[in-house]
Amino acid sequence: MTNLDRMLAEARGAGEYGRRYVQYLGGLLSGLDFGAVERFVWTLENAREAGRTVFFAGNGGSAATASHWANDLLLGTRNPGTRSFRAVSLADNSAVLTCLANDREYADVFVGQLEGLLEPTDVLVAISASGNSPSVVRAVEFARAHGGITVGLVGFDGGQLRSLCDIVIQVATLKGEYGPVEDAHLVLDHIVTGWLAINRRHEIGA
Fold this sequence. Notes:
By secondary structure, the protein is α/β, with parallel strands linked by helices. The chain has two domains: 1-30, no CATH class; 32-203, Glucose-6-phosphate isomerase like protein, domain 1 (Rossmann fold), CATH 3.40.50. The chain is 57% helix and 13% strand. It has nine helices and five strands; from the N terminus they run H-H-H-E-H-E-H-H-E-H-E-H-E-H. It has a five-stranded parallel β-sheet. Helix 8 (161-164) links the parallel strand 4 and strand 5 (167-171). The protein starts with a helix and ends with a helix. Mean pLDDT is 94; it is low at 201-206.
């Protein structure tokens, strides 16, 4: 039984379940490795200054999170007179995704794109609650083999990505607790991109 199953079983109504869920999520967020968050921010800053591309990859709910991250990094951090991020969600081009899934296999939907796009020292942010999604794992393995920098946003026990990625931010939950993990990944988006936007405005005196 997961923590969510227990809370659902014990709650006497939706309001109580909501309160318990928010408390649980708050505890998960408080337990994050904020040193890893800072290293992630440095990695993104270095990529921006070097003109490198930051790629995001994820399946299902994490695909939506990848799109959200790419949007916030590309547009939400932009300030006049400064270099913008080059941010791409590999989950967004349906024609490319379905072509690779049909002509090769689904596990190649991200690596097939990176084969034509990734340059050394580009950054790949791999988003997976389980850390074991084959398409994401394969993309990370390719990026590492070709000079990319890899960041894993994971949940549960971290899965394969925990040992594969250069930087790992893990939302440590029991297996199957997708909702809180995906919630935390979006909160991380707003922490990181919010800091990048505000810090850069301070640097230019805006």
